[in-house]
Amino acid sequence: MTIISGADALNALNDENTGVASNNEFNSFKSGTKYFVKVLGTSDLIAYYSYGIFKQVNSFVAKNPSKRDRYGNPIENLTPWDKAWKYHKEQSKEWTDEHGQEASKYRARQRFAMGFYDLTSGELIVVDLSKNQAQGVHSVIRKFEKRLDKMAFELTKEGQGTSTTVSLTPVMFPDEDLDDNQRANLEKAPKEFDKSRFDGILYEMDDDEMIEKLVEVGFDVSKIGLDAPSKNEETDEEDYDF
Q1: Cα gap 38→141, rounded to integer Å
Q2: CA–CA dist 144, 150 (Å, integer)
């Protein structure tokens, strides 16, 4: 799996051309969510390419990732899902036709995990953002970079679908807008974000499982030169109780 952190993640975030066992998880960040947070640094994020189909296959990253060009397109060591994307993409005349729509289902999208200190719980949190959302949030962080240690922010998500917006807004009147607990946590917040909070937060899928998921959603993997797992193999795996 390719995870980009620190300065390299910032480069990916600002580049307009780019499209494990752990208890760590993303914090809930559905529409209507509001967090009061402290930003602990300007590079508390990781970048990754995520696959998945809404309501069919949960988001995952490739254990054996492909090599991508500067635009984010897979060019070498393609994963099974990259091959499914390429199969439909090459037959598509425009993104709105049938093959274009099918290609979009299997395309990996660059996303960002960003870390904050939650003033309500007094815990570190990590939220999952699209590239556009992360760029908007990070532009605010950069704007107030020299005063982050003294500031609180409101992190919100509103809207649905393509109209979803994520905002990071300075809390202008902490004495009025924060409760006693939040103000206390603001004062005792850690100096730095613990980067181990990112460890294992993404679900890694190997090639065999990726093929299984393609079969489950109805893609004929023989079209991309792959074999579907046999029922005998699936049965043998299920016989073992780990």
Answers
A1: 10
A2: 10
d(CA 42, CA 60): 26
Tokens 């975030």, located at residue: 13
Structural domain spans, the chain: 4-224
Q: Please, which residues have CB within 8 angstroms of residue 25's CB and are 6 or more apart in sequence?
A: 201
- CA quadruple 43, 46, 49, 50: dihedral sign: negative
pLDDT digit string (tens) for 3-62? 666 666 777 677 655 433 457 999 999 999 999 999 999 999 999 999 999 999 999 999
- Helix (H) or strand (E) holding 129, with range, is strand 123-130
pTM for the full model? 0.82
Which string of DSSP letters, residue by residue, matches 150-166? G--EEEEEE-SGGG-EE
How far, in Å, CA of 114 to CA of 133, rounded?
11
Show the tokens assigned to 131.
């590239």
